[in-house]
Amino acid sequence: MVIRVLIFIALLLISSTSFALTAQVDRSSLAQNETMILQLQSDGRQDLSGLDLSQLRKDFEVTGRSTQSSINITNGEKKSNTVLTLSLKPLRAGDLHIPEFELDGKKSRAINVFVTEPLQVDSATQDRAVFMETEFDKTEVMVGEQLLFTLRILYATELSNASLPEFQLDGVGTEELPEQRYQRTIDGKRYGVIERRYALFPDKEGELTIPQQELNATIGGGMNRFGFSIENFGQGSQQIRVASDELSITVQSIPDGQSRGDWLPANQLTLIESWGSDPGKIRVGEPLLRKIQLTVEGVPAARLPEIRLADISGINIYPEKPELNSESTDKGVTGQRTETIALIPTQQGNYTLPKVSVKWWDTKNKRFQTAELPEKTLTILPAISNGAPIIDLPLLGNQSSLNEGNVSAKINGNGVQTWWQYLALFSTLAWLLTLAYLWATKNQRSQQPMAPTEEVNPTLRHAYHELKKQCFSNDAASTKASLEKWLALRFPELGNGALSEKVARLNDAVLTEQVNHLNNCLYGVGSSAEWQGANLAKVIDQLDKRKNDKKRDGLAPLYPIIHANR
Fold first, then answer.
1. Which CATH code of 2.10.25, 1.10.287, 2.60.40, 1.10.286 fits the domain covering 266-381?
2. Which letter, b or e, does each residue of 366-395 get, where b requires 16 or more Cβ atoms within 10 Å of its Cβ?
3. pLDDT tier for residue 546 given thresholds of 50, 70 and 90
4. What is the pLDDT of residues 439-482, one digit of tens each?
5. Which ranges in the chain are annotated with CATH 2.60.40?
């Protein structure tokens, strides 16, 4: 009993110190007469009221603050966090600095903020209770280059039921950025500001015109603290209609000699690579995963170019479906394309992977630049062999795959014909026994009532039956695609990644063996036409049943746990 109490106290002490302190702002640039939001978050139940704000107050006035705590329980694991929200108003223009904050030995990162001179409006506009502003972030733009369009609604009165038409432009790609709300003070008069930003990507040269944007709203009466969505109004409310000014910019053509297919204008571009295993210890027939990640500021993921690898004699190259991700911030869109390529050597020796290069147009410095991954030399070692006869028997006795590529057994003498007869007889019996077993288990399943969880998600059920269908049709390529879809639906907690990565996270040795065999038939020296899927179908049944059993157990863990004997 005493030991348990001591362990409990130790866990409490550990949990009290294992937290992180993060800081983030809703805007990285603003005018001196505007406000911004700073959020400080601790992923534990820490008291953030004791943070020292003295350094922050040198450059910012704290115009408001609030604290919020929450607790989430997922799969029996409790997570708590505390958020301190500060409304800040810059005290001067220039490059300002939000300092790092420290709490119980944990520090947040420092943040730089650019503050411009106070924004003013003419007296006629200022006299209005509601008006709009529009602007571009640059004065010149090229085809395909990101152009930020900003629309602001400024109001000095109660505003509700506000609506704007859907923003659409012909011949222009459009990405809506996060909406921001803050305050601006003009000659002592405080305005609420609703700011909407759009990342525009013109597809053709010529004049680009943003037509008037029309706001319909109700002023007067009551309103909530956010300014919108009020049903009941006080006396004196009235409907208004406010229009913005029309805005135009000239879109320039791409440089001479540059094709549209290779044209990639961007603010910043990075190209990195990673390997699934040590590329210096690869052997014939062993798959080697290579990931190439292209991250581009100012271009959505859908517009990023495909990364192509040149064919190499002696190495088979199998690219998987790329992962595309886009992130929207106040600075625009950042796209990321991740290519996963399986390299399977078929011969030993030294091979040079050519360099990978991406040419892009630097929109800041107005010049072409090239990002490169240098060429890499791979030393392919021979396949592992212990000197004894090796027979790579395929699943369910598919003897047709015993060829020169995966069989190194040497049989001499007059017993060759007899040996093959015994092997054929054994394979036939194994095949018949397997069919009998599958028929019996299928009948048992048909007599059992369907588990309630199977009726919840028809998409998952369809993916499961499609996977089993492909397994029994012995279609290796279709089975792999169906397996990736089923795993994504059945185990969403595995996240994104290649099939091999998801299988590794499941920590199931039998499934790993079957998937490796599937990959070898697809990419290795064997033939995909010789692959048999009944054994994989059996593993899928077991995996699906184990998942259902854990759901019925309530808080059972995701992965198998080996319990020690008591």
1. 2.60.40
2. eeeeebebeeeebebeeeeeeeeeeebbbb
3. confident
4. 666 555 545 444 444 444 568 888 888 898 888 888 888 898 89
5. 19-116, 123-252, 266-381
